[in-house]
Amino acid sequence: MTLLLPHDETDSRKRLMMLMTRHQRQIFAYIYTLVPDRHDAEDLLQETSLVICEKFDDFTPGTDFVAWACQIAWWRIRYSRQKFARAKVVFDDEVFAAVAQTAGEMAVELDERHEALAGCLKKLPARDRELVLTRYEPGSGVAEAARLSGRSMDAAYKALNRLRKLLHDCVTNQLAHPEAHL
After folding, report:
1. At 109, is the pLDDT very low, low, confident or very high (cuts 50, 70, 90)?
2. Number of domains within the chain
3. Domain ranges, residue 144
4. Same domain, 92 and 13
5. Domain presence at residue 94
6. Same domain assignment for residues 46 and 135
7. pTM above 0.90, yes or no
8. Within a 10 A sphere around the Cβ of 19, how many other Cβ atoms?
């Protein structure tokens, strides 16, 4: 038996899924800026996502979804802060609020940098691109990247240093001259 949803509800769910898919990375980056542990940040992203789904009818289309979602994340983090009180570093509320505000302001810049980096990675030869992607894949490292690319550790380190500089220069250039890369 198939559950039929009213047309408006179906459209609302599609918009929600599109927005969450597009902006989940930004929301996670915001949370991770405020939470000392990656696993806790991932848990809070899940909790935040659930609240976003529950409250999506309150979101005003045409407004800043990321800002709205990060506000929900802010309250989830505040609610969960007692879990983090055992961490070695605990910020007082004033520092926490300042970091949250700065993270929110940086979200757009970080997204632009991520898009520029993705474009620059595509310009690399496949072998170099795979070396970089393998190196920064969670749970991987230089040894794994060297092994998969058929390079020695020394050659991998040298190649990665060269590629980091190339990518840095490419991203910097794209951000400085976005019209040249359309």
Report:
1. low
2. 2
3. 124-182
4. yes
5. yes
6. no
7. no
8. 18
